[in-house]
Amino acid sequence: xxxxxxxxxxxxxxxxxxxxxxxxxxxxxxxxxxxxxxxxxxxxxxxxxxxxxxxxxxxxxxxxxxxxxxxxxxxxxxxxxxxxxxxxxxxxxxxxxxxxxxxxxxxxxxxxxxxxxxxxxxxxxxxxxxxxxxxxxxxxxxxxxxxxxxxxxxxxxxxxxxxxxxxxxxxxxxxxxxxxxxxxxxxxxxxxxxxxxxxxxxxxxxxxxxxxxxxxxxxxxxxxxxxxxxxxxxxxxxxxxx
Length: 242
Prior knowledge:
The protein has two domains: 22-123, Immunoglobulin-like (Sandwich); 130-168 and 177-241, Immunoglobulin-like (Sandwich), CATH 2.60.40. It contains two helices and 17 strands. It has helices spanning 2-21, 224-241; strands at 24-30, 35-37, 50-55, 59-65, 81-83, 89-91, 100-107, 113-123, 130-136, 144-150, 157-161, 167-168, 180-181, 186-195, 198-207, 211-214, 220-221. The radius of gyration is 31 Å and the shape is elongated.
């Protein structure tokens, strides 16, 4: 009976220890920026005898032993690391290759070691997206169009924001009337490209019925409908002169 109880306690202890070893968190950074990696386990103890940080599973990048200066072994982080007294690791001038899992090993005076993992993901700054309109069909009275928004990055989400079709220009709270202003011949659509650290946007302007202009260029987006309309106007002008 006692043996079974001891085995059960050992099993529970193993689960708890595994959970401690699995303590982790996530962090994000931007290329060229700064990030601080801080082990939350330090709140459980007041003092650690020594500590060291690893990039990945085994590459030591910062080593601190009690009473000695912090050592930064030569490697991909040369002159970019700073380890503070609370075991927080500062990484400057971030690079995309800095994305990885970082492990900090904290040892107390009794030799007991705590481990903490932080997964770092470094993102590029999102540039201004390229937008364009692709018009389908050739009906000048019906604008069937596909709006396209792109940036040359991975891990980016896109959001299209339609124009505000109704623009209040005043109100009268006494009789419940609201004067409105409409401009059906001109609309602006905005695309926003985002990642966890930044976002950027660009606009497409539609002029009635289906002529589109991108914000990044003063030249209207080439469309089948606009070309056909231009050709029609030229033919009418030709017959009028003859």
